[in-house]
Amino acid sequence: MKTLKNFLLAATVVSIFACSSDDDNRTIDPGNGGGNGITGTELTGELTTDGTLEASKEYTLTGSFTVKSGTTLTIEPGTVIKAKSGRTDVFLAVERGAKLIAKGTAANPIKFTSDAASPKAGDWGGIVLAGKARSNKGTDVQSEVAGVLYGGTEDGDSSGELSYIIAEYTGAKINGEQEFNGISFFGVGSGTVVNNIVVSNGNDDGIEFFGGSVNVTNVYCANIADDMFDWTGGYTGTVTNAFGVRNDGFDAATDDPRGIEGDSNSSDPTAAPISTPTLKNVTILNLNPDVSLKAGAEIRRGTEAVITNILFAAYGNASFGNRIDTKDDKGNGILTISSASSQGNVGDDKVGGEITGSVTEITDGITVSADNTVETKAGVGADLSAFDWANQSFVVTMLN
User: Fold this and answer.
1) 303-323 confidence digits (pLDDT tens)
2) CA distances (Å), 97 to each of 14, 34, 68, 158, 336, in order?
3) Nearest alpha carbon to residue 295 among 310, 306, 309
4) What's the pTM value of the predicted model, to 2 decimals?
């Protein structure tokens, strides 16, 4: 059995508005500029020469902090960055042509968090990376947040490395059309190394890919108000070992929270490159009886996705509206699925585009024991033990 102990988070309840998942280009004020970005332990403005954040110091992100093209920001293992809460212009952005080298370890992860005494989802923006890989929105596209350009023709482009990263309390809301995700990958190429990522208590999506070809291994999204895993704009990468969960007590939600939301292009679902991602070893789990996931996986607007070994699970009285949804008025999606299982009240499939493959109903994919342990059946869905390093604190609400 693969085990993640002490699992249900006693989350702070917050209320938010629905956000748009359309992939239209938008312009915002990128925030403070000037300077070299690092002043003592304060991070704000633009980094124009290579810089390093040291584990021996605790940094405060007080505004927009942008790593400019041609510049590298290195973050040492164990570094903690606290973001000033309550503002929409507090974020880390890495421009196209710049690099972020943030290589934590299991023993010493790198943490981005809120500086609030009582932190909550949406306290600050999030992490934004831009690259030179292809997007079906063009080659010089402005990101919907952070005001950086992305896109190009270099699918093997590198934006650096992110390993053993925790990003929490992200998702600041700018307006009804613009919200930060935990980590946003805009046209990021496959030369970028991304593994062992945790996003928790997010006010919008956990991670989202806007085109690009970056591959991600071991990604855990806990307590996400909107979509746990999201892509659009021609994303063609591979996501391996992904675990998404909404815990009992985390009630922050948009109108349509989902486990997976996959788009290609809402204006032209035939625009090239089409989103053709591959997902392997995935668990989408709802433990909250008060907030239903709209869908376990919504594949739409031209996306052609392949998913292998996925578990859709709703524990106790929790539920999904639909298990899989490939029907959309802006273009259907196509899904090829194999080694798929479902457990609990996860709804029916809503078929628009073709779904190839079947889902087997099981009863032992997820079990919760009296000693506050959540277990998954070996070989079914994500391997939860890959996230033991994150040391999350959870409280289980047992069923009577």
Assistant:
1) 999 999 999 999 989 999 999
2) 37, 19, 8, 8, 35
3) 310
4) 0.91
